[in-house]
Request: fold
Amino acid sequence: MIQIRSLTHTYPASRKQAPRKALDDLTLAVAEGEFAILSGPNGSGKSTLFRILCGLALPSSGTVTIGGFDLFSQPAEVRRILGVVFQNPAVDKHLSVAENLRLHADLYGIKGDEFARRRDEALGWTDLSDRLDQKVETLSGGLARQVELAKVLMTRPQVLLLDEPTTGLDPASRRNFLDALLRLQRQWKMTVLMTSHVFSEAEDVDRVAIMREGKLLAYDSPQALKAMIGTEMVVVQPIGDAEELAASLRAELGLAVRRHGDELRLEETENGAGLPMLEGILDRWRGQIKSISIKQPDLEDVFVHVTGKAVPEHATHQAEAR
Amino acid sequence: MLSVAISLAKREFVRFIRQPQRVIGAVAQPLMFWLFLGAGMGTSFRPAGLAQTSYLEYFYPGVMVMMLLFASVFACITIIEDRDAGFLQGVLVAPVSRMGIVLGKVFGATAIALVQVLLFTAAAPFLGLHLTLFGLVLLLVGFVLTSIGFAGLGFLLAWGMKSTSGFHAIMMVFLMPLWMLSGALFPISGAPGWMNVVMLVNPVFHALEIIRAPFYGDGLALLGQSGYLISLVVVVAWAGLSLLGSMKRVGKRERGV
Reply:
């Protein structure tokens, strides 16, 4: 449904900055009815890719087709099947919920009984039914987000693009938003591509793409990505200098040891090999270890493994809050 | 396209009337200009070649143009606000024609400007100015065209602006001089030669001509006067070009190198 081929985007030079390559020969496909998450550290090119997919920017080279239409030569056809949820809700805060839905329906040519039917249906997925006359500026962040989702889903898009839609939401609102989105995506077999920093959001989706410096580093199902780094991980919390202990572990065990905050994580252990390794580490380095445990790798571990970068701090906080 | 433009224009108007301070400011500022400047200057200056006309009366159509300028151009500031708030992106990704987006903003600005200037027109009889029915139609045409011209120009300028303060600066150094050199404050006949030329190529001068004329001439007869027709053509061209320029600007997408 979404076909991105050899996409390259270089921002022109400005007075303060040399030309900057944001996307580098990126190729990616999201099949019809798939839910894919696009992740990567800051500056990885996610936002640039999102702007191009929305039709707000043109790339330096490459092609994109959405629903069989060429995005660059047939933008009007693409817009008809596309729904977009931006990081900042694209709603008018001075208008009421009902007025925002009406205006959005007008932009998509949804009128009369059809509008009333779709509006009521959209409100059924939200907690907004008794807030129709309330101005959006008086709603909480979570409810404003629901207005955005309701207005976009009201148009029944075949393809939905979302740019970090849960930014700023509390954990409960974020879960509600994602549950509603996943339910509708499955029900309508909608193709969804969503950028996100929060890895707990990616556990239930079909595919996860990880980008860095404009390149696609990994793209597979969450299960397959986690399997990449082994089925078990040993997590060590050092007492003293973490770097010194990491170097010693690397040298003696010959395994990949990565820093994750205050912790050291030993990857690529086979199933069942975690416990003997844990015992071996305890025997050898007991005096330097505050705690040690075995865990299943999650998508955060995959992200650190693939990008070589720590998980963005705010994403970790959100995940912890959850 | 038209239904989209009307929906977007309606939004502009609703937002305007829900902000009382904006309504008060838009009406009160030109009114104060007219009363204070008109009354103050009236006793000291007499417009060249217009011995029978009070300065308050002379300045009256100029204030109308000023109202259209302020209302239309300030309405375009919302482009910057809409972009910052994220609303504009939502409109740009919708399946609507780029001209629909431009017309939505311009029609909204024009509606806001018309309400203000029509209220001000009610003062005409107190100055001894009277309109025929056809003259009123021509005056309305003048208001609408001028407002579209200003709103289109405001749209074009606001689209590329990153901040509202930058837009205010551009307005003061670019749009206000257009009004100052329109004949609103002083007639072209008393202006020095070089200024005469600048005024003649200024579309706002012609806008003022087609707004002033219905107060002093028979409506139908005006259509036979070459001076009036030339000004009308200039204003139509200005409005059309500013709309086309705005549409082109909206359709232009950031491109990688």
